[in-house]
Design brief:
46% of the residues lie in helices and 14% in strands. It has 254 residues and is of the alpha/beta class. It has a single domain, classed as NAD(P)-binding Rossmann-like Domain (Rossmann fold, 3-Layer(aba) Sandwich), CATH 3.40.50. Strands 3-2-1-4-5-6-7 form a 7-stranded parallel sheet, sandwiched between helices. Strand 1, helix 1 and strand 2 form a beta-alpha-beta unit. The longest helix has 29 residues.
């Protein structure tokens, strides 16, 4: 058995029109999976799906726009995936929000709630939607993209860090609940990655130099350097791993 063979698998990847999510979707497809590309804008999803289909064959990728803020849209995405391919083997909860930078004392209630709803509650919605058919087959992998922010304090992205710590606990709880049905639930905790989402943290040359200096590998990461962990967690290679958080940060947290 090829430990990283994903042929026959179907994966949903939220927030996959760019950045880490796109890299994950591309690498899952490269290893044989069919992938659902999802983000808020249909045209952005269409473009990524078209590129994947051009590279790996028509029918490899399906574009379904869905905002993580809207439960009905997420349910529709799950329903369309099942109607098209009949199964969901891997769910990657990658999409997240961070509308506020600054001290906790300055965050508006609406901003705080948006972070918690989109980064925690929406993930639980998706798991609840996808898990029944995984349970019926007694097989599945759920991957939540957390952050090393869930392991550290911050003076500028505190609420985001709170949500990412909660994602790690969500994975542990769900791993306990779903494990008896052979469903694995794990987190990936990236460090600072060069994405548009994290641009406020790396776009300033002085900030970037300071971050590089405190990183053992002396640089920030690239989206594709996170994708391999998702392939591992989706594949048979990780079939005895659950409830864990894989830290991929160039050594920052050590």
């Amino acid at each position: 058995m090829n430990l990283f063979d994903l042929k026959g698998q179907v994966a949903i990847v939220t927030g996959s029109s760019r950045g880490i999510g796109r890299a994950i979707a591309e690498r899952l497809a490269e290893h044989g999976a069919k992938v659902v590309i999802s983000s808020r804008k249909q045209d952005a999803c269409d473009a990524v799906a078209a590129a994947i289909n051009a590279k790996h064959g028509a029918g490899t990728a399906l574009a379904i726009a869905a905002s993580i803020s809207h439960k009905d849209a997420l349910q529709s995405m799950v329903d369309k995936t099942l109607a098209t391919w009949g199964r969901i083997d891997t769910l990657v909860c990658n999409a997240a929000s961070n509308p506020y930078y600054g001290p906790m004392a300055g965050i508006a209630d609406e901003q705080f709630r948006k972070i918690l709803d989109n980064n925690i509650v929406a993930n639980n919605w998706l798991v609840t939607m996808v898990a029944p058919q995984m349970r019926a087959r007694r097989d599945g992998s759920i991957i939540i993209v957390s952050s090393i922010g869930g392991l550290r304090g911050s003076t500028v992205i505190g609420a985001y860090c709170i949500s990412k710590a909660a994602d790690m606990q969500l994975a542990r709880n769900l791993a306990c609940e779903l494990g008896p049905d052979n469903i694995r639930v794990n987190c990936i905790a990236p460090g600072l990655i060069k994405t548009d989402f994290a641009k406020a943290l790396w776009d300033n040359p002085e900030q970037l130099a300071a971050r590089n200096a405190e990183t053992p590998l002396r640089r920030i990461g690239e989206p594709d350097e996170i994708a391999g962990a998702a392939v591992y967690l989706a594949a048979p290679a990780s079939r005895f791993m659950t409830g864990q958080s894989l830290v991929i940060d160039g050594g920052v947290t050590i």
